[in-house]
Amino acid sequence: MSKFPELLLGLTLATALTAPAFAEKIGLGRAALPEEIAAWNHDVRPDGQGLPEGSGDVTTGEDLFSERCAVCHGEFAEGVDNWPKLAGGQGTLADTDPLKTVGSYWPYLSTTFDYVHRSMPYGNAQTLEPNDVYAILAYILYSNDLVDEDFVLSKENFGEIKMPNAEGFFVDNRDTVELAEFSKPACMENCKDKVEITAYASVLDVTPDEGAAKAEAVAEPVAAEPAAPAAPEPAAVDPAMIEAGAKVFKKCAACHKVGDGAKNGAGPMLNGVVGHKAGSVEGFKYSPAMLAAGEAGLIWDEASLDAYLADPKAAVPKNKMSFAGLKKPEDRAALIAYLSSFSQ
Question: DSSP for 183-251?
Fold first, then answer.
């Protein structure tokens, strides 16, 4: 006799017993309590729903960012090695190699709060209090030139922050646009009338230093720049000032090096910077703005360095250094004293 009817009956009973209608009858499960739901409901919505009470200012955020975030994201949110950059990139989204940061790409500040609150710092997630997260976000906004240095972010004004790329997203239309485009037969031969070299790697800033010289050799020759004026001998500096400046320099060390064997990195090495022409460190690829400032006669004396360190973007507009500036005059004076001790 076939066992099919028995198997069918067993399958039917098993299905029925697992259905919601039977759960109550056999005593399985219960409705979740409000406090249980709240324990899992941590997401923050674009309209601010889910935000905890709290607030934080830019200055506090800068200190917290330096302590908890800078090891990966840089002192000024410029990124370290291949860790993400959080600042800059405005106006690059239409480029072939866009820089997608919180300021240039993310459409809602709530995404940043939610991610930092639940997932950061790396390896030590969920150790930041809500006030810490508000302060760190305030500093990230400041690093992207979206708020002023005295800004305080809170639950109350969170919804007033409009991110630059909030309107830059659209409904996914790949099924009607991209799918049709990429479903065409692929071109296998004679796909272009001609092939041209449109740029050299040195221009694109992707060639290592030793290869850049070869690439530049095919470019049109340019007149040699006049030699930079010799740096004046630095005046005697209080050792205590130098020691204090060494501590301040920790904010710069992610990009700049000083001392024996110092080399260019994300920023130029700073040996002998005091008294030298701006944009004159050999081998470093400066922004056009910094080169123009040097050609216009900018010399890094104490006054010009103090102005630049206070607000780099105001002192040399459109230069490429992402730096919020040193707000305390005593910190700037100490840093200049420290840099003065490296004359060569």
Answer: TSPPP-S---S-------HHHHT-S-HHHHHHHHTTSPP-PPPPPPPPPPPPPP--HHHHHHHHHHGGG
Q: Classify residue 19 by its DSSP letter.
A: S
Q: Do 122 and 56 meet the contact criterion of CB atoms below 8 Å apart? A: no
Q: How many Å apart are CA 67 and CA 98, to the nearest integer?
A: 29
Measured between alpha carbons, how far apart are the two ends of the chain, in Å? 99
Cβ-based neighbours of 180, under 8 Å, separated by 6 or more: none
What three-state secondary structure class fits 277?
strand
Global pTM reads 0.49
Q: What is the pLDDT, as a whole number, of residue 22?
A: 52
Counted residue by residue, the chain has a size of 344
- Please check the confidence at residue 9 and state whether its pLDDT lies above 60: no
**CA 323 to the chain's CA centroid:** 11
**C-alpha triplet 209, 213, 219: angle, nearest 5°:** 135
Rg (the chain; Cα; Å)? 29
pLDDT digits (tens, 9 = 90+) for 183-211: 888 888 888 888 888 777 655 555 455 54
In whole angstroms, give the CA distance from residue 78 to residue 70: 9
**Whole-angstrom distance, CA of residue 214 vs CA of residue 210:** 8
The string of DSSP codes covering 70-139 is HHHH-TTSS-STTSPP-S--TT-TTSSS----TTTT-S-HHHHHHHHHHH-STTSTT-S-HHHHHHHHHH
The Cα–Cα gap between 75 and 109 comes to 20
What the block records as the tokens of 168 is: 């830059």
Q: Which of residues 174 and 117 earns the better pLDDT score?
A: 117
Task: Answer yes or no: are the C-beta atoms of 136 and 128 closer than 8 Å.
Answer: yes
Q: What is the pLDDT of residues 33-90, one digit of tens each?
A: 999 988 888 889 998 899 999 999 999 999 999 999 998 998 889 988 889 999 999 9
Average pLDDT of every residue of the chain? 82
